[in-house]
Predict the structure.
Amino acid sequence: MNGITNLSPEWRNWIRENLARGCAPQSLVDDMVRNRFDPVFARAAVNGVMTNNEPVAAPFEVKPKVGTGYVYEMPRLPAGNIIRTSDRDVRVVTRVNRPMIAVLEGVLSDEECDQLIRLSADKMHRSTTVDPISGKHEVIADRSSEGTFFALNADPFITRLDRRIGEVMHWPVDHGEGLQVLHYGTGGEYKPHFDYFPPEEPGSHVQMTIGGQRVSTLVMYLNDVEEGGTTIFPEIGLEVVPKKGSAVYFEYTNSQNQLDRLTLHGGSPVTRGEKWIVTKWMRQRRYGEALSPATATS
Ligand SMILES: O=C(O)CCC(=O)C(=O)O
Ligand SMILES: [Fe+2]
């Protein structure tokens, strides 16, 4: 998820002209990625030009209500003490109803955690977040971690995890962004933030061009952290201690497009040892649906 994240007038014209010539949108995305564009941004940019919504200025189709008055609907997370997925039973250890948060055990086996770390270790990049004004992915001081990303169906191992995670989150696999592995060294942290794209920030519109708003998050812990590194929810004073194979789930966008500000959260500083997590973010719609079915790949 790295690379160029702004569209010069020249590139915008290039997209326009090639679409007019009948080029497949995906081939333009591929060319842009070869020219060092961020893949997610490239898709959003091509889509924006295709739909005549210039990416940064594109109005989001429904203006979401923010903050107060969030209506809590039936949680998407299945009810009960055990969530039975196609290949594993996941135990619910804690549920909070407002905001909707759950702590889950046994989402991943120890071997799966180790395997994800192994697969990620040699392809980590300093993590980026979305700049509120430009919508660009920027390295920022608030997020001292390195990350890497696994596209949906990257291989049978990832496909199996994505399937199980979709069952736990009770949301279609193809509405999910690819799994994102993050590593924090000692001192690493992620300051409190929202996982949804704040609609008042212009950069959010770029991110929402494909798939819409994020609706829910599953943060899975890949190791036990010696000291610190808890997932904190400062609005409600909750702290979840990382445990290998466990996860914290939360949801923040309801069917009326309202956003739950109580899901403000962060990763507290790792004071001893290191911390590995893998995160799944679900979107309102199919992630990639804005391109035609023949060209959408994730
Ligand atoms: O590190 C954590 O515990 C939280 C991670 C997080 O908030 C995220 O990946 O969006
Ligand atoms: Fe987050």
The pocket of fe (ii) ion (ligand 2) is lined by residues 193, 195, 265 (CB under 6 Å). The chain has two domains: 9-57, 82-283.
